[in-house]
Amino acid sequence: MLEAFFTPRGVAVIGASADPLKLGHGVVRNLVESRYRGGIYPVNPKAGEILGLQCYPSVSEVPEPLDLAVVVIPAEQVIAAVEECGERGIRHAIIISGGFREIGPEGLRREEELSRKASRYGMRIIGPNCIGTIDTHCPLNSTFVTGTPRPGGIGFLSQSGALCAAVIDWARASGVGYSRIVSLGNQVDVHDAEVLETFASDARTRVIAAYLEGVREGLHFMRAIERAARKKPVVVLKAGRAEGAAQAVASHTGALAGSAEAYEAAFRQSGALSADSIEELFDWARALAWQPLPSGNRVAVLTNAGGPAILAVDLFEPAGLQLAPLSSHTRDYLKARLPAAASVANPVDVLAGSGPGTYGVALDALLSDPAVDAALVIQAPQNWFLPTSLAEVVSEVAASHRKPVLASMMGLASVDEALRILHRRHIPNFAFPERAVSALKAMRTRRLWLDTEPEAPAHLQASDPQAASRALEESDFPALLAAYDIPLAQTRPASDGQEAVQEAKAIGFPVALKLRAREVSHKSDVGGVVLGLESEAEVREAFDQIMESARDARPGLEIQGVWVQKMISGGQEILTGVRRDPQFGVLVVAGRGGLEVELLRDISTAVAPLSRRQAREMLETTRAGVRLKGWRHLPPADIEAAVDVILRLSQIALDCPQIEELEINPLAVLPQGQGCVALDVRGRISSQSPTADG
Hints:
By secondary structure, the protein is α/β, with parallel strands linked by helices. The strands form 6 sheets. It has a 7-stranded mixed beta sheet with strand order 9-8-11-10-12-13-14, sandwiched between helices. Strands 24, 25, 26, 27, 28, 29 and 30 form a 7-stranded antiparallel beta sheet that branches. A 5-stranded parallel beta sheet has the order 2-1-5-6-7, with helices on both faces. A hairpin with a 6-residue loop joins strand 27 and strand 28. The two termini are 54 Å apart.
């Protein structure tokens, strides 16, 4: 449905201008200079012709065929122009004009009217406030930005027109080819998920790169990414990640699972590669578009300089890569052909005096070794051969193998033409080897995601739905957990010291006392927790201590008493919780529990619903998860029982949309086969003040 934005049979430019300084002139110029083969129809009642093209006083007088209108006129005239396009039968329009939602309430009203007009005529609109679209293979350039990138395999969609303009200019200078470029603007109609799906279906687009500032329908966007990622790589740069989530939070989960964490989780689960910078976005896109994916993580490094090679190798382990263990046959072959002082261990150092021929022999040997999954070629600047010669040799050798080859011909002034050769031959070059390692990591991550079979989400229903409903109405979070078969430590309420003693005797020593006060989410912050009480006297003393500490910390605090809880020993403490996100729905967190969770931030986040494997993986990516497998004096813990609790807690949030936050901290994970026990639960119901319980 969006193809007419890229391969129209005819384009009308409403607001075309003969003035080279105006945007309407730039659009006509680019259509002409991009060698677009369809009809180009400038619309301007005051002009006779523009760049040799006949002008039309209105779009209604433009001849057939006509699929697309590009609108470049003042905002107050756009609605009438869209209506005229609708009457003319045009069903696709790019609104370059600004002056809509981005300027405030008046612009928002204008944008809402634009949306209504488009809906009335069944018209698809990109923009407003955008720079247009490019398809280098059609070819078509409907933007006003000077120049068109060379044809290639990278599709780029952006919520920033300025970034699009910069990318176009960079692409022209670097020789990197693009397939399609879309500036989304305000997304009054056509939105990011639709463009993703269009790019995924485009045979000439090999990789999708996206710059995003936000999405409106997070779950729909996730599904669009996953469908696209099953066909081709998707690399995303999300801006605005420093912004925090909700201000009022009742749990550690609310503070930890913010907007940035939600987007990162959504990208990871959907198969998108999340870049941290514009540089990474296009470094990764080039590597993924131009080179095959590595079958493993073993990398051979070929260099003429030890220092840069060491810097690259230093980054291998955190990137999930390793130096390939070269076979004795490969080492012997290299030793017989390289300079005597050269190193034939990986990294292979051919030394400063070696030329392109030596590089070629060594690279061919490395790529022929079954133990090598990928190669990184590093060359420090020198003055005894032309860098273009090395670029030709590396390109030739790489083309004869089916393994990824990345280059780092360092420098700028001396390698400009060599880089053009590498780009033409689809060998990605990076000014410094660290960037090449980052690209290899992205390629490896892509391979691992593709090799992992999708698994259906787990669905663990409440064993007692009626009890769950009652618990939810009463904000009784322990009862809610019990209705979903989440085990809790035996806990009883007590309103005074004597009752606390009685309950402790009934439960059995040792016990813990915890403050009961609806206004307090984090009990320890007000001295509201005392552990390991072994006698009646200790319970009485602890009760008085808690009351005094809480009242000193929060004068006027309404206190209901304490919880008396059976002490659980022998387990490792973790945190798991859920929070409702406005874009993505239910976010699930798991990781290090206890008092210092926000300081340590040993937490992983995911978007529900989760499969059992996803829940296990999110826990295992944390240091707390590593400890659960057994660490020094700690025996292996019951990880599967913890995974079960994570899934049940996420199911509660999916079943109960009233829940804003719900957290178990700590969850005591007992030794393998013994299960786990929730020691404290707190939460918040929508439209209520923070509530603590358990």
